[in-house]
């Protein structure tokens, strides 16, 4: 039966007395209009009819779509700048000296083998492709773009703040205060059980329940979260092991065709495994977070939601980004050097980055995970599964309806709506968008096209969600909300995190700093010529550990091979130690991080400071309203004073006394309480008193 | 005449129609009690009677003293930790290997001369004293203390936020909104002049005035601020020149007595000159900031005050800290190296830091400026000058009173109060404390006793200010204020700045990082033995430029001298270039800055997040109040409903209609305005409706 939720109904549903309680869809004009103007894909270029959405679904859902709209809208400039930055990369790839040098076969750098025994020496020019691809994403414009996107994130938050205030003004939400919520049914049940066991001290129990659960569950939650973290890390580590072993096995295969495709095959399959693992764990983590939050027995629904969101966010964030963090900051940094490689399980060498730098791998990883996650989540989880659920539901219902058909009654609206999927909260929708926001902001320095992909996804996402809400879900119970709640804090936290992560990506993952250092400190000509030579260290092949040197070589008699690192040459007194260049480049990288972080933080503060939180039009409107209201009240009170002789009114009985009491402060407690609450009314009383004196 | 300020009186005073307008001092009990309980030095250990202060002087001044009280109270733990940290330095000075090594005469490091020609080589062990003193402030505990103080600053702000909310609750300030202020008389005058010149477009002019002044004055203000900055920097630079020249001159003097005291004499006199310059410029800058703000013609008094404070703060902050910044981050870094010194005016070598490190000089500079500024400002500016002013005033007044004495009338309260000094706002009081807060937080890593000195000063300062307010100033017009306004933002900004500055002080000014790097990277034994040797580079005396080698030496035949820097020795292939050690130490320093900054920022966020802004007691009290109020209203409305037949009341006529209109949204514009404003009342109406239905 359609019912407005009042305390009790949720308990009854939970106990199985009722099957469901939901408001009916409005089959009149509203739903039609919403479908026509909002839920069709062909309306993608239009602004959303937010006021209509709010009227139909309530403020909470209205705010979600408004937020999604603002986000999508602001992705447009970000995408454009991203395309320009990418275009700059494309345009300069043929004039970029480092990638030209890498492709130049005349320079003939003989590189040390990529695996022990089976692999041969190789020429750097064979990695020409990745070097050129790398330049598309790793060029000076990327640094500018990272700064731009950090400011963009601040701008987005500020813009949303303003929009939120405008909405809450026009939706009449300014005055709502959080009313005391009813305790959740679950909480009450547990309290009841406790009370039955120990009837003496109920009030004590309520308090004790909080502390008891906090203490006992803190442990289990902490432990469980650690387990989940462990699970994710072992998944990431598993994929690493997969990559290492498969590369090693494929390298050993005698087929030259297999050998040449090693890197492509391994990277592609590994990323896909990563993606699948992420998607599976995502679902598991959703359940785990729910279970953990149930364990805590939060008192109210809001409390429950906030804790659930925080936990689910932590788990899903880590799940989605752990492999990317690995590629960005750890891959290739613990591989050791020729003659002293790092081995896992005593047999397999730790993996290194592609010769073009880790950035291109980061870029591949990021784009595949982002695109894959969005496509699969959109198609399977948001379209496929609901459809499937609906199908199952209709199949189940078929038998009784068959019998009922004899009565020939046309299906009523509640029967139609009952067949729809129940609404399960906005958390998954927000979560998806927040994780996407992470892709757009956190690692944007390595993948300037991320905003574009996000934009394309969101244009579809809005209509997809709209369609789901209008046609596939039961109408949710309308809920008021002043703001988007904890999501704003999460967004703002991610914005802050993105500054430092982008600083590290530019400084450590990209080759931006080594290039600058080479140009201004080491280059004889002041140009980039010779940069590749400068980044490669020498290795004397006689220093290979027994059995690790190539078994056979097509390159003739090699005495010295090169590898990418800043180390002393074999003929130096402290051979293979980090060279002076290493330390100077490291200093430059760290200095860049400090400079970038503080500059961007300062600029962000300035942006947030310059943009006022409340739009000017609203400030003025509020002022005008206040004035009008005061005038109106004065007028009204004046009229009422004419009647003062006949009957004391509410105002008049209250005001003069309160004025006096404010001066004397000798009133009783209760009166004080009233007067404090009436503070808003008192200025009017004051005016009234003035009018009174003037009359 | 004592008058409450209403629009017009300030204009009349400004035009000289009246001489002054002020509320009279209350000679009854209150002032006596305030003096006894608050304004006497012997009450220094007592809590301030803040409620009494607020009652006598108004909320704005009450908040200042409450803030000062919270700040002083929180300085107590900071001082204690500071003393412990200093105590740790004192306790370990005799076991500290680097300072023992510096004092060890057997090690016999022959250092390069400190000036050209006139100075001789010298033994490092002669700088034993400064090395030992340096250890008192530059030890591992200092790092801990810097982190502690950064968190302390956050804690202080959070604590104050809570206190402010408690106060605004108990002082009944929760509901006050900023009322529309009257324009300042000055602004109105200028508007009037403009209007007379161009009568046609008045409204246009108002708008135009804003833009016009913004545009024309922006230039002049920017220019003027630049001038002031230039003035400060030239003052600092002047002192540097003074130091360089005087040291050079004294070093050349034949008297050995003079020679040995060079450093002490020069440092002491230079710091005193710095101090005097700061005090003089401080007064000038106060006037300049006022003049600049007048130029802008801000519309309202609040606006005026905020702009004035911001400007005055910028100027005074820079003035007070410029010499300290110089010593912390610039001194000794541009001095060059033996054989290639940096010269100013072609003659004088840039100054270097003392052999014990720059930190000890920073410490001396900091303590003298801090103590001197406080003592002089307290004694001269806050006690001396007001007394002097009063004396002048009474001398001036004497003649007319002589004549009046014939009438033999006893002086009335307004005559007595008129003789007092007029109140000139809280800005100077706040400014003094904020600059002190800077000394306590910004450079605390170099001077752990700063909180102690601040505490001692403030204990006196509170009573001094109290005495001034109670006995020496005319009673200020009471003003309401919700919070301490822009000062909170300035404090919070300083807290943020202090994190990065302390990170740099520890990383670059102290020897903490080089010591760590030596211990874990270079030391053969894993101890600090040999650290001093490691920090000193070699210089071949034959590489001195002609005329710069010592004219005569007591040290016999020297071929190699040492200097403090990480450079390649003369026998290396790239002699005197920065060595690998230099770059590795630099990397470690920068890495420390990143680590420290992000760790402390993270911890600060956590602290701010964990401490709720509103104290729990107040949250509960508010809840209880709300409940009582709703109950009361329900009760009252129920009673009124009994009378509903006889006469329609204000509430009943309004509410049902509004309920309907909320659903229909077909009401007229004016009605909507009213209802929005009445949002606070509507929930009650709702309850009313419920009651109505139940009846």
UniProtKB/TrEMBL annotation, chains A, B:
Listed transmembrane segments: 64-91, 141-160, 221-242, 262-281, 308-329, 434-456, 590-611
Give the domain of life: Eukaryota
A family per Pfam: Anoct_dimer
Q: Name one GO molecular function term.
A: protein dimerization activity
Topological category with respect to the lipid bilayer: Multi-pass membrane protein
Q: Which residues form the Anoctamin dimerisation domain?
A: 8-50
* Subcellular location, record wording: Cell membrane; Membrane
Under InterPro entries, the record lists: Anoct_dimer, Anoctamin, Anoctamin_TM
Q: Which GO terms describe its cellular component?
A: plasma membrane
Give all residue intervals belonging to the Anoctamin transmembrane domain.
53-625
Keywords, sorted A to Z:
Cell membrane, Glycoprotein, Membrane, Transmembrane, Transmembrane helix
Alphabetical list of PANTHER family matching this protein: ANOCTAMIN (PTHR12308), ANOCTAMIN-2 (PTHR12308:SF20)
What protein is this chain from?
Anoctamin
Organism annotation: Poecilia latipinna
């Amino acid at each position: 039966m359609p019912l407005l939720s009042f305390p009790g109904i949720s308990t009854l549903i939970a106990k199985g007395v009722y099957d469901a309680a939901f408001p009916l869809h409005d089959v009149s004009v509203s739903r039609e209009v919403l479908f026509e103007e909002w839920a069709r894909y062909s309306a993608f270029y239009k602004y959303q009819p937010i006021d209509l959405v709010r009227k139909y679904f309530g403020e909470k859902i209205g705010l979600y779509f408004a937020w999604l709209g603002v986000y999508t809208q602001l992705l447009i400039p970000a995408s454009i700048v991203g395309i320009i930055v990418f275009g700059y990369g494309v345009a300069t790839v043929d004039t970029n000296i480092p990638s030209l040098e890498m492709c130049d076969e005349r320079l003939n750098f003989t590189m040390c083998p990529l695996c022990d025994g089976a692999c041969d020496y190789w020429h750097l020019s064979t990695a020409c492709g990745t070097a050129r691809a790398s330049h598309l994403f790793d060029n000076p414009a990327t640094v500018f773009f990272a700064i731009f996107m950090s400011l963009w994130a601040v701008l987005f938050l500020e813009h949303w703040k303003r929009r939120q205030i405008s909405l809450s003004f026009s939706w009449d939400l300014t005055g709502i205060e959080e009313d005391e919520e009813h305790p959740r049914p679950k909480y009450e049940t547990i309290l009841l059980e406790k009370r039955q066991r120990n009837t003496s001290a109920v009030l004590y129990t309520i308090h004790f329940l909080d502390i008891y659960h906090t203490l006992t569950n803190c442990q289990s939650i902490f432990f469980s979260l650690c387990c989940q973290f462990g699970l994710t890390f072992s998944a990431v580590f598993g994929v690493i092991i997969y990559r290492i072993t498969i590369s090693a096995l494929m390298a050993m295969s005698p087929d030259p065709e297999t050998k040449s495709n090693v890197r492509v095959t391994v990277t592609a399959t590994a990323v896909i495994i990563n993606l699948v693992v992420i998607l599976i764990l995502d679902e598991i983590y959703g359940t785990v977070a729910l279970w953990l939050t149930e364990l805590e027995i939060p008192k109210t629904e809001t409390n429950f939601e906030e804790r659930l969101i925080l936990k689910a966010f932590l788990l899903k964030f880590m799940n989605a980004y752990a492999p990317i963090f690995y590629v960005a900051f750890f891959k290739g940094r613990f591989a050791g050097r020729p003659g002293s490689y790092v081995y896992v399980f005593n047999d397999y060498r730790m993996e290194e980055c592609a010769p073009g730098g880790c950035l291109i791998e980061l870029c591949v990883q990021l784009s595949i995970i982002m695109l894959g996650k969005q496509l699969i989540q959109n198609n399977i989880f948001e379209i496929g599964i609901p459809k499937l659920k609906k199908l199952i539901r209709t199949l189940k219902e078929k038998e009784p309806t068959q019998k009922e058909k004899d009565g020939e009654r046309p299906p009523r609206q509640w029967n139609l709506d009952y067949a729809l999927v129940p609404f399960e909260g906005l958390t998954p929708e927000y979560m998806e968008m927040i994780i996407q926001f992470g892709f757009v902001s956190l690692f944007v320095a390595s993948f300037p096209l991320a905003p574009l992909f996000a934009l394309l996804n969101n244009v579809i996402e809005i209509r997809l969600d709209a369609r789901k809400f209008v046609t596939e879900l039961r109408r949710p119970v309308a809920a008021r909300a002043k703001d988007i709640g904890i999501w704003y804090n999460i967004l703002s936290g991610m914005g802050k995190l993105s500054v430092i992560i982008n600083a590290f990506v530019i400084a450590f993952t990209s080759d931006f700093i080594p290039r600058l250092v080479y140009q201004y400190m080491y280059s004889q000509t002041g140009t980039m010529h010779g940069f590749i030579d400068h980044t490669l260290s020498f290795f004397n092949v006689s220093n290979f550990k027994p059995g690790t040197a190539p078994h056979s070589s097509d390159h003739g008699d090699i005495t010295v091979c090169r590898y990418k690192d800043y180390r002393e040459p074999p003929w130096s007194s402290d051979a293979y130690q980090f060279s002076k260049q290493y330390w100077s480049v490291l200093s430059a990288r760290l200095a860049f991080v400090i400079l970038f972080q503080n500059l961007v933080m300062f600029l962000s503060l300035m942006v947030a400071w310059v943009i006022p939180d409340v739009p000017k039009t609203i400030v003025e409107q509020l002022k005008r309203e206040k004035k009008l209201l005061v005038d109106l009240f004065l007028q009204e009170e004046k009229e009422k004073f004419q009647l003062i002789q006949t009957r004391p009114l509410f105002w008049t009985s209250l005001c003069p006394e309160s004025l006096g009491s404010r001066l004397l402060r000798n009133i009783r407690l209760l009166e004080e309480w009233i007067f404090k609450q009436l503070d808003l009314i008192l200025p009017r009383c004051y005016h009234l008193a003035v009018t009174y004196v003037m009359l």
